[in-house]
Amino acid sequence: ESQAAAGKGTPVLVPGDAIIDIAKLFEKGAAVYGARNWEKGIPLSEILNSLERHLQQEKMGGTDENHARALAWRAVIYLATKLRIENGLLPASLNDMPAYRLEQEVILGKTVEEAIVDTMKSMAFNDGQWYCSDPGCHKRGFSNVAPNIFYCNKHKKGKQNEYIKNS
User: Which residue among 25, 105, 111, 153 is the one 20 to 30 A from 9 at the CA level?
Assistant: First the structure.
């Protein structure tokens, strides 16, 4: 991917068959309600309620309609509506979802730092070996950079100096 295209999205990676299938529901809706009727605005809670109902019907194997298509359509219009609200193209009142934000401590029951330490401890085995501290690496070994920190040979280079510098 060229630098000029970086960050602009890669539409060729979007599954065309799924998009065409979702477009069929846009076509069906246009025939009943008029083209682009949904763009007048639907409260986000209504979109999510409908999406959730279709998700549950899909999970239960419902065959009365194409629930996968229906929930995907609602996900698309939810995102489009939310983006248009954020950009001032639709009224903020359509975002009728709760405005509260949970801190990580509320979600995890501990600070992020405590969760990381607990995760690191849970990754140790009785033989004293740890997983490599590089994300995505699953090699195991004994602490070799600092207490309770292990890097495999591939990822160890420079980590000892980095640890000393940051201590």
Answer: 25
Chain centroid offset of residue 19 CA: 20
Residue 152 and residue 126 share a domain? yes
Q: Is residue 154 part of a domain?
A: yes
Q: What is the pTM of this model?
A: 0.60
Per-residue tens of pLDDT for the chain, all 167 residues: 567 778 888 889 999 999 999 999 999 999 999 999 999 999 999 999 999 999 999 999 999 999 999 999 999 999 999 999 999 999 999 999 987 766 666 666 777 777 777 776 666 555 667 677 777 777 777 777 676 677 777 777 766 555 555 55
How would you classify the pairing of strands 140-141 and 130-131? antiparallel
CA distance 76 to 82: 10
Based on the fold, state whether residues 61 and 126 are members of the same structural domain. Answer: no
